[in-house]
């Protein structure tokens, strides 16, 4: 302790402050604390041989160029790699003739930038001949130290992922569905159910599950929800979170047919992002043109390719690298639209008509880009491409002008006049040699077109909306499409085929009327009404149909469940009902021959399923009777309790009513007064001659 100047010191104080402390370890002390544990933070700053090496990457498979082309190569490489971070130094080894050796060393400011470069730019396709290989410089030492003797890795315990396919093992093949409703403003509830009979079984109910709506993936494995920060996909028997994708204010999503990729679409003018569903990694992004958001990207059936239409060219991207196929676009002047085959890597596109150049429809095989078939068309106003779900047929609906006849005086006049419109359906037989094309001409206005998903029929609504007709055609191998049935004077606006074919619902969504038709003999099995119904949804098995009312109709919101024959099974009224969605199913694994054998021997299995259905209904009836008996018992008990309370309160009632018992006044006939009321119902006048 320090003393002030002039303060007196005594000998005892001198003795106390003159001794120095002893920091030596006692005899026999063993130090068991390591430097790493004691000075961990300080030792992190210790210099080592690898300082700076972690910031360096090695880029291989660079083009070998001479000195005159080196500045251009250097500029391209720096433009590519500066996106990963700040570049400190770049070194290109050269030979005696001043040519590059095909690799380079790039040093970044920090190790994080180097790691980002390896992650994003490894396998970067520079052009169709060169694909860059990017590795860390430190990885060379790691891989050179691999021991000569290989030892097998220890087996890791199997971790069960969420049971994404649990819904497919239901023994009775009862489908799942979800019902979306808005409980309170801004709070959307989603209810998941199983379509058991006679009443559905609730599997799960989630409050505030999404901000807007939900969407199933094509095979039913996932369900997508929308939120302010982005979208989330859920799966498994309990619908747990599988992955989330940060794309603020995403309005639409699209999932590839094989469920490998997810596309999120922001508002018009914002970017569109392709994500890997399993890893959540961003694979590629595009800037929206602000006009056609919802169907900008289109997928091949096997997820191998994704394509988009930009400025008279089709850009096809290979999903293994997400670079352009063959590093170039397919330029087609005047192209208006295109569509992938649902079963093959074939693109159908149509080109608009120009002066002295007819419009045309072309089938293009991918990846070889071979034209399989071309069809020229004249006097074309518009085209619509309709693939059959099985990929056996392609229909191109062509809107054509009826050209007027010119007078002899007008021979030199170059103006062309048109009298009206007529319509052609060009049918491409995709499974036949040389892909023959047949034409079906219809003079009346076309209101709707629909292919039979499994089969060779297609249906057309034509004529005036107030009195339209529905024509059914059948396309057979080696024959022209033939008209098999025409139903006249049908007020119909939409056609909904069963996913299994044969059955069709002819709907008038303005009136809410429906007709259920069997196209084997074109008999109308049943008709029904659902006032203000705005949507029709078949279940994946083709056994049930749902019609729903939502939106502006506040008083009748809800849905009806119908059998495929048109019998109403259930009516559900639900306040603020928004959406009903069946859960899709993946394609069957049975071969075509096996499916034919099952259909052929269906009567053999009929008795078995009939017994199971009867047992289920009996069990359900028993449960219903027991439920009703329990409710009656509860009501009787409640009524007895209230009657007893009423009798106990009789004395108090009489006190309040001057000791007059008013409980039996109405039952006493002497207290009743009779009143006769006469009124004129009808007046007839008869003239007597």
From TrEMBL:
Cellular localization per UniProt: Cytoplasm
One GO location term (cellular component): eukaryotic 43S preinitiation complex
Sorted UniProt keywords: Coiled coil, Cytoplasm, Initiation factor, Protein biosynthesis, Repeat, RNA-binding, WD repeat
Biological process (GO), any one: formation of cytoplasmic translation initiation complex
Disordered: annotated segments: 1-30
Compositional bias per record (Acidic residues), positions renumbered to this chain: 10-30
Family matches, as SMART domains: RRM
Superkingdom of source: Eukaryota
Residue ranges of every copy of the RRM domain listed in the record: 55-139
UniProt entry tagged with the keyword Isomerase: no
Subunit structure: Component of the eukaryotic translation initiation factor 3 (eIF-3) complex. The eIF-3 complex interacts with pix. Interacts with mxt.
PANTHER family: EUKARYOTIC TRANSLATION INITIATION FACTOR 3 EIF3 -RELATED (PTHR14068), EUKARYOTIC TRANSLATION INITIATION FACTOR 3 SUBUNIT B (PTHR14068:SF0)
Family membership noted in the UniProt record: Belongs to the eIF-3 subunit B family.
Function: Component of the eukaryotic translation initiation factor 3 (eIF-3) complex, which is involved in protein synthesis and, together with other initiation factors, stimulates binding of mRNA and methionyl-tRNAi to the 40S ribosome.
Name used for this protein in its record: Eukaryotic translation initiation factor 3 subunit B
Source organism per UniProt: Anopheles aquasalis
């Amino acid at each position: 302790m320090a003393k002030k100047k002039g303060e007196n010191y005594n000998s005892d104080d001198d003795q106390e402050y003159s001794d120095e402390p002893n920091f030596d370890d006692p005899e026999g002390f063993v130090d068991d604390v390591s430097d790493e544990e004691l000075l961990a933070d300080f030792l992190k700053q210790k210099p080592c041989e690898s300082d700076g090496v972690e910031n360096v990457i090695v880029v291989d498979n660079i083009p070998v160029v001479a000195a005159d082309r080196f500045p251009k190569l250097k500029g391209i490489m720096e433009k590519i790699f500066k996106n990963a971070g700040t570049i400190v130094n770049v070194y290109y080894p050269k030979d005696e003739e001043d040519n590059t050796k095909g690799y380079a060393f790039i040093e970044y400011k920090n190790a994080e930038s180097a790691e980002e470069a390896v992650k994003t730019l490894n396998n970067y396709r520079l052009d169709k001949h060169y694909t860059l290989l990017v590795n860390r410089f430190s990885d060379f030492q790691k891989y050179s130290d691999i021991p000569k003797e290989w030892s097998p890795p220890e087996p890791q315990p199997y971790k069960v992922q969420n049971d994404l396919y649990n819904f497919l093992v239901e023994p009775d093949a009862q489908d799942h569905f979800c019902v979306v409703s808005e409980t309170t403003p801004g709070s959307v509830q989603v209810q998941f159910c199983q379509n058991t009979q006679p009443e559905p079984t609730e599997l799960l109910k989630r409050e505030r599950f999404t901000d807007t709506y939900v969407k199933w993936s094509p095979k039913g494995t996932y369900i997508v929800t929308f939120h302010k920060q982005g979208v989330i996909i859920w799966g498994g028997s309990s619908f747990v979170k599988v992955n989330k994708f940060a794309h603020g204010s995403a309005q639409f999503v699209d999932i590839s047919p094989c469920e490998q990729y997810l596309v999120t679409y922001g508002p018009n003018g914002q970017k569109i992002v392709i994500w890997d569903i399993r890893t959540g990694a961003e694979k590629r992004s595009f800037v929206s043109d602000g006009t056609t958001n919802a169907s900008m990207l289109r997928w091949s059936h096997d997820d191998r390719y994704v394509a988009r239409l930009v400025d008279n060219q089709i850009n096809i991207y290979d999903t293994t690298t997400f670079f352009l196929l063959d590093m170039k676009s397919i330029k087609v002047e005047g192209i208006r639209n295109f569509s992938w085959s649902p079963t093959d890597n074939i693109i159908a596109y149509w080109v608009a008509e120009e002066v002295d150049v007819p419009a045309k429809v072309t089938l293009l095989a991918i990846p070889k880009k071979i034209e399989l078939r071309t069809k020229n068309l004249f006097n074309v106003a518009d085209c619509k491409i309709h693939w059959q779900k099985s990929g056996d047929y392609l229909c191109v609906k062509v809107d054509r002008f009826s050209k007027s006849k010119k007078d002899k005086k007008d021979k030199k006049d170059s103006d062309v006049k048109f009298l009206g419109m007529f319509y052609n359906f060009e049918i491409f037989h995709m499974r036949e040699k040389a892909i023959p094309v047949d034409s079906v001409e219809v003079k009346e206005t076309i209101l709707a077109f629909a292919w039979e998903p499994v089969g060779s029929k297609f249906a057309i609504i034509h004529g005036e909306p107030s009195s339209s007709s529905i024509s059914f055609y059948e396309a057979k191998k080696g024959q022209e499409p033939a008209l098999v049935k025409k139903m006249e004077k049908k007020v119909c606006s939409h056609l909904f085929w069963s996913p299994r074919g044969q059955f069709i619902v002819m709907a008038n969504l303005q009136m809410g009327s429906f007709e259920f038709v069997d196209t084997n003999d074109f008999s109308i099995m049943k008709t029904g009404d659902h006032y203000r119904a705005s949507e029709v949804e078949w279940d994946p098995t083709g056994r049930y149909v749902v019609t729903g009312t939502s939106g502006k109709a506040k008083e009748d919101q809800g849905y009806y469940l119908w059998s495929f024959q048109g019998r109403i099974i259930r009516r559900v009224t639900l306040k603020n009902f928004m959406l009903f969605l069946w859960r899709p199913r993946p394609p069957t694994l049975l071969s075509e021959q096996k499916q034919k054998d099952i259909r052929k021997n269906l009567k053999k299995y009929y008795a078995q399923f009939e017994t199971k259905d009867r047992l289920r209904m009996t069990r359900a009836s028993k449960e219903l009777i027991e439920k009703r008996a329990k409710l009656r018992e509860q009501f009787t008990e409640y009524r007895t309790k209230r009657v007893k309370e009423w009798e106990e309160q009789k004395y108090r009632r009489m006190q309040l009513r001057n000791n007059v018992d008013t409980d039996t006044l109405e039952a006493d006939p002497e207290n009743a007064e009779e009143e006769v009321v006469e009124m004129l119902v009808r007046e007839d006048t008869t003239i007597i001659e």
